[in-house]
Each structure stands twice: as C-alpha cells, then as structure tokens.
Amino acid sequence: SLHDALPISVLGGTCVTLNGSPLSLLATSDAQINAQLPWTLAAGHYPLVVHSIANQAVSGTATITVARYAPAVFVDSGGPAIFHQDGTRLDQSHPGVRDEPLTIYAAGLGPTTGGTVVVGMPSPSNPLAVTGKLQIYFGNPAISDSGVIVDWSGLQPGTIGVYQINCRIPGTHLSGNALPVTLRIGGASSPVTGANVPLVWVH
Q1: What predicted TM-score, i.e. pTM, was given to this entire model?
Q2: Spatial distance between the Cα atoms of 75 and 196, rounded to a whole number of angstroms
Q3: pLDDT surpassing 70 at residue 114
Q4: Cβ atoms of residues 193 and 180 within 8 Å
C-alpha cells in the first residue's frame, strides 16, 4: 500500500522532531529510539524533542550537533561489524590475514552520489549510492603499513542508513593485536578513544 511505502514518523506511540520537523523512525523501545536524519540537513546545532503520543506530552529534549561527516564502525556486544568473506567476524579468534578481503558496516560516511536516496526508505541497488573517498587504517594512521585498500564504499542496498565498505588488507600490512580501526572521510576521522573503538587482529 502507499502507507507502507512512506517513511514512518510515528512508531510505538512515539514521535521525534528535530528543529520542529518529524524524523523518520526505524525502531522504538522503552530504552532506545532509532531515527534517521534528513540527507539535506545542514551542519549545525538543533533541538531534538521526543513526544509521547499516548500521553500527549514531551518525554525528552536535547540539543544535538549535526556534522556532514561522522564516520564510525558499528560495534555491538560481539565487537566491531567487520567480517571475513565467510561471514565470521574479524576478532581475536579469527584474525585478518594479508591480502584478505573484508566487509565493514559503518555509519556517518556522509552524502553519496549515484542512486537516489530517500529518507526512511531502503537504499537503492541500481545505481548504487556511493560515498566520497574513504581511507581506512588498522593501527596508527601515521604508520605507512597501516593503510587498508578500499574497493567500494556506499549505502548497503535494501537497508536504511547503513554504509557498507568492501576492503582488503594489503600484503604489506603490519601485523598486530587489538589494532584500532580508523575511518577517514571528508576531513573527519572515526573515534580512536573510548569503550567502543573497534579493534582488529592482523596476522
């Protein structure tokens, strides 16, 4: 139906507005709300308000900072979303090896070219939505052998707001345990401190 084809702005009795405009909601629960910012939103500071439709009340407010780029690898309880070709996660028990292709899932890689992107709708598959130039490092970016080859990066087709990176560990890459992962795009780098910094093992 037409309703199913439109972005959802009310979900689970919740509506979220940014600068007075409703955001597209992807999921809601008692502890978390997943929403998507518009692609056209300029960098700046904006008021965010969470509305409880059932209670006809505001249940939370904040001011958020929006940047054109805010790269970050997805991290969950299993670790960073970095996978070998067979689907296993790259971790201490399954380290990366030189010349190996990997897939990384990330957020905040900014605007794309190619396929048309619509807020709240799955990303296109033909043509694909492609990011600008992305650099990846496993280990200290100041070390020349920490660079990873990026074969493709863009929005993962069929998902909403998820970036996919196809990359390879070059044959000259340094070895190491618990190497921090850095993504760089548009002059912005992913966080390198804190509990959720993605770490990889390369042997």
Answers
A1: 0.90
A2: 6
A3: yes
A4: no
